[in-house]
């Protein structure tokens, strides 16, 4: 935790973890203010977890969530009131400390502290408040927006899709001015979290600093996006700053909607409730798996779309395989609750998967959507849709439950003119160009093409978008089309994988020759590919613009 002092009795930082609060209490902090909405990041504890720990340490916790880049005058006033009413030193946090600092600066506008001192204190703490300087000087009255800079291509999102696209663009045209906008300090190899939850990978193997991965020649704007203004070719950042573009690529990923399951936030990471969909919780999955000697283990899958649709059952297979090897499986009831109607959407892979379901004695429950969890009572509730279309409630107790949360597009995407009716970026599924704005493109998890949301899909999409963006700029001679390719290595046991590779309409699209890997059968070679080859391919090829087995087919434009 990197604490920065802004004012007498006020410190700020980036995201807190529950274990950080004891140190704050030791330093005399009496009030915690959370300015980060729940569900922004995969490594983010929810406010309820922070509040619970704060109360146990005798501190007050306040939830004042702020959408990044959209700090309002009212929120600044509320922040100032919390500071005045606090019983002692206050610590505020958000993703990076930027929003908390912005709230402080605006709340101090018009006070006895001069603008120069406000800006200086913020700068000394590592936060640039020049974007809101005019608002501070005018006591929160916005005098107008400011253009930060202009680029040929602006990419929103520094995840797998965004960085891969930037690298592919630079490989094709090193004279292009490109910027990636992302506030995160750490980039995660999320496909590795299933292995963390099975004790195969250490968490640190799946994380690298964002700065080390930004392609050479690409500017990194370390800020969050608040809104899109496609009519003026602008992206609105935190602090009401603007970045303008000739072409825009939208790749911010999706949002894990933990609040979509009642009671889940309050019990995550304890009471046997876990999820491999969060960096800090995957190790807890492995802890639970190791400690469970008997009882009932539930595994859930929410309605589609979700990232890596095979991940919910991968957790089941690897857990059950461990219990089988430890000769405990006969004492553990394994149950899978899927909101959908089938085990896997491409039928060619189902027979192999079913053999493992039978091996592990797992009970399959389809059309069951988790809607409530009570960790203290070790109970979960599901809405079951019957064949007649009626909905009934199913209650199950558990000793361990692996929850996959419902997933939605990021808030700033859903609220934008780029979104379709469901909130996803609305694109042509072949060219990945926006259906209404010709200078906007999207790839990765945030767009609405019907492909599987996987890193392998983003790897195929990045060169397509890079080529088509250059074509739109007059620097490429043809158009590329994406065929919907996605890959899901279904880890059915330690040492064997069913390698599902498919495109639009469930068409099988294997890249590896059948004699090497027969994707419809469990394979040791596929396991070797997943454990040893895919991580370096991700870090050293995909994120560096090396399009091994991913070069797009170009048609005349």
UniProtKB/TrEMBL annotation:
The organism's place on the tree of life at top rank: Bacteria
GO terms of biological process kind: sulfide oxidation, using sulfide:quinone oxidoreductase
Coiled coil start-end: none
Domain FAD/NAD(P)-binding stretches: 151-461
Cofactor annotation: FAD
SUPFAM superfamilies named among the record's database cross-references: (Phosphotyrosine protein) phosphatases II, FAD/NAD(P)-binding domain
Domain Beta-lactamase hydrolase-like protein phosphatase-like: 2-109
GO molecular function: FAD binding; hydrolase activity; quinone binding; sulfide:quinone oxidoreductase activity
Annotated keywords: FAD, Flavoprotein, Oxidoreductase, Quinone, Transit peptide
InterPro entries given in the database record: BLH_phosphatase-like (IPR005939), FAD/NAD-bd_sf (IPR036188), FAD/NAD-binding_dom (IPR023753), Prot-tyrosine_phosphatase-like (IPR029021), Sulphide_quinone_reductase (IPR015904)
NCBIfam families reported for this sequence: TIGR01244 family sulfur transferase (TIGR01244)
Protein name per the record: TIGR01244 family phosphatase
């Amino acid at each position: 935790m990197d604490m920065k002092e802004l004012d007498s009795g006020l410190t700020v930082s980036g995201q807190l973890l529950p274990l950080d609060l004891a140190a704050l209490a030791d330093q005399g902090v009496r009030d915690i203010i959370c300015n980060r909405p729940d569900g922004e990041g995969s490594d983010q504890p929810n406010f309820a977890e922070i509040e619970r720990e704060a109360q146990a340490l005798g501190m007050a916790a306040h939830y004042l969530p702020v959408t990044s880049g959209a700090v309002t005058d009212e929120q600044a006033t509320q922040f100032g009131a919390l500071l005045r009413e606090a019983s002692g030193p206050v610590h505020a946090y958000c993703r990076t400390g930027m929003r908390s600092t912005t709230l402080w600066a605006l709340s101090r506008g018009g006070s006895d502290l001069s603008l120069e001192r406000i800006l200086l204190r913020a700068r000394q703490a590592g936060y640039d408040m020049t974007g809101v300087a005019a608002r501070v000087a005018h006591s929160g009255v916005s005098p107008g927006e400011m253009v930060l800079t202009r680029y040929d291509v602006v990419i929103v999102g520094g995840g797998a899709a965004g960085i891969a696209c930037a690298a592919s663009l630079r490989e094709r045209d090193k004279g292009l001015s490109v910027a990636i906008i992302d506030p995160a300090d750490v980039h995660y190899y999320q496909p590795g979290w299933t292995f963390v939850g099975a004790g195969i990978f250490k968490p640190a193997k799946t994380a690298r600093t964002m700065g080390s991965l930004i392609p050479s020649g690409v500017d990194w704007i370390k800020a969050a996006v608040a809104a899109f203004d496609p009519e003026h070719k602008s992206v609105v950042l935190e602090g009401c700053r603007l970045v303008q573009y000739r072409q825009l690529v939208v790749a911010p990923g999706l949002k894990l909607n933990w609040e979509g399951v009642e009671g889940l936030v309050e019990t995550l990471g304890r009471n046997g409730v876990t999820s491999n969909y969060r960096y800090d919780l995957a190790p807890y999955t492995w802890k639970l798996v190791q400690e469970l000697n008997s009882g009932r283990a539930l595994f859930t899958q929410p309605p589609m779309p979700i990232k890596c649709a095979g991940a919910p059952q991968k957790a089941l297979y690897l857990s059950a395989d461990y219990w089988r090897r430890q000769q405990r499986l006969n004492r553990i009831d394994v149950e899978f609750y899927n909101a959908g109607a089938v085990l896997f959407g491409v039928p060619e892979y189902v027979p192999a998967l079913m053999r493992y379901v039978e091996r592990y004695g797992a009970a399959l429950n389809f059309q069951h959507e988790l809607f409530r969890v009570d960790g203290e009572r070790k109970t979960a509730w599901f809405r079951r849709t019957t064949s007649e279309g009626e909905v009934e409630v199913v209650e199950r107790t558990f000793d361990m439950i692996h929850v996959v949360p419902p997933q939605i597009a990021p808030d700033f995407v859903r609220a934008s003119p780029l979104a379709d009716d469901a909130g996803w970026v609305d694109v042509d599924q072949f060219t990945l160009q926006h259906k209404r704005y010709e200078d906007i493109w999207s790839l990765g998890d945030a767009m609405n093409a019907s492909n599987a949301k996987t890193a392998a899909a983003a790897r195929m999409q990045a060169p397509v978008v890079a080529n088509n963006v250059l074509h739109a700029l007059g620097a490429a001679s043809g158009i590329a089309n994406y065929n919907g390719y996605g890959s899901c290595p279904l880890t059915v046991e330690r040492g064997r994988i069913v390698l599902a590779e498919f495109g639009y309409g469930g068409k099988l699209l294997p890249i590896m020759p059948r004699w090497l890997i027969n994707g419809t059968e469990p394979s040791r070679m596929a396991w070797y590919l997943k454990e040893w080859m895919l991580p370096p391919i991700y870090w050293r090829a995909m994120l560096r613009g090396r399009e091994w087995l991913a070069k797009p087919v170009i048609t005349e434009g």
